[in-house]
Automatic annotation (TrEMBL):
Membrane topology: Lipid-anchor; GPI-anchor
Subcellular location: Membrane; Secreted
Cleavable signal peptide: 1-24
Pfam families: CD59
Protein's recorded name: CD59 glycoprotein
Recorded superkingdom: Eukaryota
Subunit note: Interacts with T-cell surface antigen CD2.
CDD domains reported in the protein's UniProt record: TFP_LU_ECD_CD59
Alphabetical keyword list: Disulfide bond, Glycoprotein, GPI-anchor, Lipoprotein, Membrane, Secreted, Signal
Domain UPAR/Ly6, residue spans: 25-106
Species for this entry: Python bivittatus
Amino acid sequence: MDKMNCVLLAAFIILTISCNSSYALRCYICEQSPILCRTNLTCSDEEDACLQIRMIHLRTYKCWKMSKCSKEVVAQEFSVDSFRHLCCQRDFCNKSPSLINTAPLGISAVIVVWMMSL
């Protein structure tokens, strides 16, 4: 791989990593929903995380602050005792903890393979 390809590859990787931090976070927003939430919202500048609270048969989804993601703070804010919660910092990541946005990684891999074959 020549020097120009290495420079292009490095620039592409840096761009891919930084592109998700340039706009407001988008999260699913539903209060005590028995089904998966489909409503979404662009969070305010103060809210830097998406939250999902899972109680027995209900889930709450909303924009949140990462600094308030401790179990104690969530329990106090929502007045609940038995629950599980998820805080994350990617668009729509509060739908399910198993969902991972792999599109940027897949695109990067294809471009790296293509550049290496030149």
